[in-house]
Amino acid sequence: MQGGGLEARYTLGHGALVDIRNLARTDGDDRFYVITDEHVAPLWADAVAERLTAPRLALPPGEESKRWASVETAVRWLLEQGAERRDTVVAVGGGVITDVAGFVAAVTMRGMRWVAVPTTLLAMVDAAIGGKTGIDLAEGKNLVGTFWFPSAVVADPAVLATLDPRQLRAGLAEVVKAAMIAPATLQHHLPASLPRLAAGNLSECEEVLTAAAKVKVDVVARDERESGLRASLNLGHTLGHAMEAAAGYGRLLHGEAVAWGLVAALILSCERALLPLAEARRWAEWLELLRPLPNLGGLRWHDVAPFLARDKKRSRGSVGWILPRVGGVVVGLEIADEEARQAFERLKTVQDEPLPSLF
Ligand SMILES: NC(=O)c1ccc[n+]([C@@H]2O[C@H](COP(=O)([O-])OP(=O)(O)OC[C@H]3O[C@@H](n4cnc5c(N)ncnc54)[C@H](O)[C@@H]3O)[C@@H](O)[C@H]2O)c1
Ligand SMILES: [Zn+2]
Fold first, then answer.
1. Between these two residues, 164 and 204, which has the higher pLDDT value?
2. 80 is catalytic
3. Is the CB of 93 under 6 A from ligand 1?
4. How many Å separate Cα 137 from the centre of its chain?
5. Is 313 part of the annotated catalytic residue set?
6. Is the pLDDT of residue 4 over 90?
7. Given CA atoms 15, 31, 210, 289 in this order, what sign does their dihedral have?
8. How far is it, in rounded angstroms, from Cα 329 to Cα 325?
9. Is 156 near ligand 1, meaning CB less than 6 Å away?
10. CA angle at 224 for the pair 218 and 226, rounded to the nearest 5°
């Protein structure tokens, strides 16, 4: 996908990495610095660094790298390497690396350019788009950060071949989410592409991934600083985040929590007559393809509710749910705790049954 405005520099295609020097270029006199993680370094980032004649820094993999210590390590490394303000940081990795390296670019010498090279499906359709960068604190995720847009996003689905299948399926939850937000853009891609991708087959996946990315690109272009519209991207995330946090980070991958959150949103939509049962069942069929998902048997409402309450406190009183309706979503709905609890308990009843059986 290439076009005007914000998405002008979003490229997704098999073989894009071979062309990285060209795609990442700004003024022809660029110097690049690659930041990656230790998993991705030997698999993909070293080759990117070579193509860009760039030095590279590998942080430890995983969410633990989204902290101040990594920022200090990376900024000092850039200075040691002689980086200047007009040089470009290239983040090669999943959402952790695009978040932290984008933040490093934002704060080093008051702001360097950066290019995102997402290597997980989640980062290709979500984390690398939209300019949000940042790190976690002990008090919670993503509490320090800034909006700092990459000058280009270069996504090559070939890199997904080395991704853990569980991570791949989890990322697909964001694709289904994008389809629920903008059915007109994505719905007709799902029947052919989703079963293939869920089974780890990466052939002909460009269209569906580009369409999912475009949903976010379009929403962000209309609402760069999250004043309202952008909230629609949080579909499935209200309960999803709370379940992810309550389970203990890592036990339920973000996308897995979102998949369950989407099912809960479908349940609530049906209850509020926003969506006919048949349509909810159809979405549940897509989500069924993402299984096995860790089941929620061990999770108690008692542990989940405080995280919902914390969200509510941060947004001054209302959690503002997003629910699917026919043709899109409704944003900012009030859902009583008891109603949310009931939807959560319904999720827990699903063990070996297919998800559509809930509707
Ligand atoms: N900025 C945003 O708008 C935004 C949006 C969504 C999520 N996020 C953030 O993204 C992070 C999650 O991102 P993620 O799911 O990509 O996780 P991640 O970056 O931790 O990657 C998951 C794992 O896969 C490995 N990996 C990455 N690419 C690989 C490849 N091609 N082959 C083999 N292994 C590979 C990584 O080393 C890591 O171990 C969270 O911190 C979340 O807050 C940010
Ligand atoms: Zn998400």
1. 164
2. no
3. yes
4. 19
5. no
6. no
7. positive
8. 5
9. no
10. 105
Work out the angle between the directed axes of helices 165-181 and 190-198 (0-180°, nearest 10). Answer: 160
Query: Which distant-in-sequence residues (6+ apart) come within 8 Å of 202 by Cβ?
Result: 157, 158, 160, 161
Please give the distance, rounded to the nearest whole angstrom, from the Cα atom of residue 98 to the centre of ligand 1.
8
36, 97, 120, best to mutate for ligand 1 pocket (most atoms within 8 Å of CB)? 120
**247 phi-psi bin (left φ>0, alpha ψ -120 to 50, beta other):** alpha
The three-class DSSP label of residue 323 is strand
241 is catalytic: yes
Amino acid at the residue 231: A
Strand pairing category for 132-137 and 140-147? antiparallel
pTM reported for the whole predicted model: 0.95
Residue 76 pLDDT? 98
Please give the Cα distance from 123 to 212 (Å, whole number).
Answer: 11
Cis preceding linkage at 183, omega within 30: no
3-state secondary structure of 36: strand
**How does pLDDT run across 106-162, given as a tens digit for each residue?**
999 999 999 999 999 999 999 999 999 999 998 888 999 999 999 999 999 999 999
What are 138-150's pLDDT values in tens digits? 888 899 999 999 9
- Cα of 124 from ligand 1 centre, angstroms: 10
